[in-house]
Amino acid sequence: MLDSQTIAKVITAAEGLKPHTQTVARVMNFLEKLGKDDVEQTKRRGKKLVVVDEEAADR
Asked: If residue 44 lies in a helix (H) or strand (E), which one and from where to where?
């Protein structure tokens, strides 16, 4: 599972700047489209998450 804060940290580490909220949302949407049936977006406790199927993550 990846939450928006984790994705923002990864982008910050790569780019050196804190990403805009919309950029993080676009990355989450991209990951969902890229993963097709193995990735889904969900909300838990008010946080948006990208959930990757365990077998897909192992591949």
From this structure: strand 39-44
Q: What is the pLDDT of residues 17-59, one digit of tens each?
A: 999 999 999 999 999 888 888 888 888 888 888 888 888 777 7
The pair of three-digit structure tokens given for residue 31, joined into one six-digit string: 């990951």
Q: Which two tokens stand for residue 6?
A: 């984790």
H/E run at residue 52: strand 47-52
C-alpha torsion sign, points 31, 37, 39, 44 = positive
pTM for the predicted model, two decimal places: 0.77
pLDDT number for residue 12: 97
Distance CA 32, CA 13 (A): 22
Identify residue 4 by its one-letter amino acid code.
S
Indicate the SS3 state at residue 59. coil
